[in-house]
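Encode chain A's predicted structure.
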Amino acid sequence: MRYKMIAMDMDGTLLNNKKEITERTKKALKKANEKGINLVVCTGRIFTSALFYAKLIGTKAPIIASNGAYIREKDENKVIYKKCLEKEDAKKIISLAEENGFYPQVFTVDTIYSRKLIYSSKNYSLWNEQIPKEDRVNIEIVDDLYKVVDQNDILKIVVMSEELEKLFKLKSFIKDNIDVSVYSSLENNFEVMARGISKGNAVKILADFYKISPEEVICIGDNENDISMIQYAGLGVAMGNATEDLKLVADLVIDTNDNDGIAKFLEEYIL
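Encoded structure for chain A:
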């Protein structure tokens, strides 16, 4: 089978644990790109951050951000797909999170809003310090997240905590009682998007856009929010560091993100 598209998760997959793309991985991706394979960054991250890494690997393909809620061309302001949370749903999520003592992080296309610099907003703030000004993510600390919802299109809301039992009790409640998509991308978070949003759905939209069949698609990931795209792909690939649930649905398990897993896979199976 000649594959025409490779969709890759970022954290825990394309990036090592230092949040870097290794030279070996860049080299292998460049060769795959030269063979005419569309390289797609498919991430839960905000578009601005995904764009920064897409530039590093030299792909010209559109970017899937916010777990599939937003698909946009890399080099021009052309939105292929966008689906936002209903405003009432977003407000319910914020209310439930705050009632439980959590600090929800509210994501638009280009800005993260939070009542406190903590978790996602803090991580992006630290990341901003290491990159050029034009590539930085906007972070706004605000008193009123409900006002943010009223005035903006909300792509996703992230809730993080080290109180895991309490966190996942809330995750289950939201999944059972509010008509939204809920996934975890880390062991201490969950992310809420509009109903029907998933990486698998986004990869399908992009494959259809390119007139590529599922059989011609490879998807690579490591966590719960990657399961849908692994199931969609002709070849679903799990990183060695992936969750057991993801490994169970994958066609192939490769080396870890900290051991050039993607590069080794491409060298052996694609190049």
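The CA atoms of residues 13 and 175 lie 26 Å apart.
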